[in-house]
Amino acid sequence: MICGSVPVKAASTVVKGGQLLFRQLFEHKSCTYTYLLADPGSNEAVIIDPVIEMVERDSRLVEQLKLNLKYALNTHVHADHVTGTGLLKKTFPQCRSVLSELSGGKADIYVKHGDKVSVGGLNLEVRATPGHTNGCLTYVLHQYMMAFTGDALLVRGCGRTDFQQGNPRTLYNSVHQQIFSLPNEYLLYPAHDYTGQTVTSVEKERTHNKRLTKTVEQFEQIMANLGLPYPAQIDRALPLNLVCGLQELLSVKDQTEQQSKT
Ligand SMILES: N[C@@H](CCC(=O)N[C@@H](CSS)C(=O)NCC(=O)O)C(=O)O
């Protein structure tokens, strides 16, 4: 169930029915983390940032765990891999895709800052964290003191701001106002890691993040000088991710353009 602005208070209540079912899954080519979360009482589940090449693995896991996959959330329109959302929906027809209303992408459900995504007894608070892209979202699971930060905040790093409406000042404010404002002990799960790390915390990033502990002016300088090459899959990924990762949803014109690039 998706609800409008509902104030969510910080609490560490364990959901009735037992422990959270939680899996952190990895895709090696784009170093992407996908997260599977399920309410132990109802077996209703949500997947965050699935990757198309790993849909078979993820579908098998959902089936083996006997989960009812209700939602496929993307934290934003990704530039480095094709989303698995569209393909997952074919296997799990009840599954609904979710994106920010500011993303520019196609989805079954559009969410905005302050909304809530609920599966069984789990409630994910939607926080807008733009700056890497306009439509970047962080999903906060207060019940288990966890947040899924997409590319807004990476372990000791953050998403780049040099394409897709990137803006360093906006990103700095998003992280400070929407992520660093969470309690210190909240665990933060990023959409990527390039150094073999899996998780961090509000406290660790507030203390050790080499970019975001600086002033906003210093941060802007750092971001202007990252010197990163464009993601290898950007030309393929961006148009496909605007249509849930499915070629068949692209217009004929877009498909012709896509083919001429390959
Ligand atoms: N080499 C990777 C792309 C690496 C990259 O640019 N990652 C992005 C997130 S995906 S758009 C990023 O924001 N990185 C920040 C950083 O500091 O690394 C590929 O070719 O896919």
TrEMBL record:
SUPFAM superfamilies the record matches: Metallo-hydrolase/oxidoreductase (SSF56281)
UniProt entry tagged with the keyword Metal-binding: yes
Domain called Metallo-beta-lactamase: residue spans: 31-192
A Pfam family it matches: Lactamase_B
SMART domains: Lactamase_B (SM00849)
Keyword Metal-binding: yes
Keywords for this protein: Metal-binding
Protein name from the UniProt record: Persulfide dioxygenase ETHE1, mitochondrial-like isoform X2
Organism of provenance: Priapulus caudatus
